[in-house]
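User: For my dataset I need records formatted as: sequence, then structure tokens, nothing else. Please produce one.
Assistant:
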Amino acid sequence: MKYKIAVIPGDGIGPEVIREGIKVLRATTEVVSGLDLEFVNFPYGGEHYLKTGELVPQEGLDRLAEMDAIYLGALGDPRVQTGILEQGVLLKLRFYFEQYINLRPIKLYPGVPCPLRDKRPEDIDFYVVRENTEDFYVGIGGRAKGHSHAQLEVLRSIYKAKFGLDIDVDRDEIAYQIGVVSRKGTERAIRYAFELARKKGKKRVTSVDKANVLTHVYGLWREVFEKVAKGYPEIETEFAFVDAITMWFIKNPEWYQVVVTPNMFGDIITDLGAMIQGGLGLAPGGNINPDGVSMFEPIHGSAPKHTGKNVANPIATILAGQMMLEHLGEVEAANKVEQTVVEVLKEGKVKTRDMGGRSSTSEVGDTIAMKLKGKQ
């Protein structure tokens, strides 16, 4: 089967790690019969923005819509104001292609040092399903100052009634951001989590929220979770507040099997998950539309200080490619990539600096690709 893969190398170390990911993906086409991958490059990122003032134009979105998947390196350029690339490229793609699931496997591989004492690979092997297009990321908010802003008058009345505080509407400034969840958006994310649990043979789904304080949005989240759970009687369920789950990720990560969470909380706890699986260099992620174009990436940033040094760990990007293969239905190829990564990590001969070694980015990619092809 032939697939057209859009490649957005992005910024910083993005092009370096994507290079190694493509190297490994090309190797799979040599060992899996009938698999054909065509890579189509797109320039979007900091350098392109600085040269052209363009983020992702409609013509680019139209071309990306023709692809089977998107393979992203990293975004972030210190020369560009924070938020422009993240919102104008990453969030734009997530929202435009309705990639309403952010899927993060939290998996400790053999040979990878874990910062948690006495935890083994069999103790850390679960998934976080993060709703990816709602919550506080919908972009509803702003700033208000002075009598001319009706929003400030409304907020002034709220502050006065609830807290007994009086805002000076002539001088005080307020910034506000509104979190929004819909029944539809919540249900499809939670249902995806239960279906994933069923597919992967997991027996427990944990729902994360902060319904004890943010009762309106996360009260709805809980209500939908309970409703969806009734359709999966064989799967155990539980609720966890977001602050509590950060503690239990550290103390008892072996408890978790599938975790489903609203957007902002998922953004936070998956970075914690990356640390307990050995670091950002080993953590892949997928932005998924089950019926459309999905995007796969390492969860780390562009690490500008390491750009061009050939020292970044490409394994997260390689595993993001593995997730992409699995999503496309190429399970044999995905399994071969993951198993090869496991073998290389077990051997421990090739390790980048973040793992306590001295190997270069390209050495890791070369080793995995060659072993995959049976030449090492």
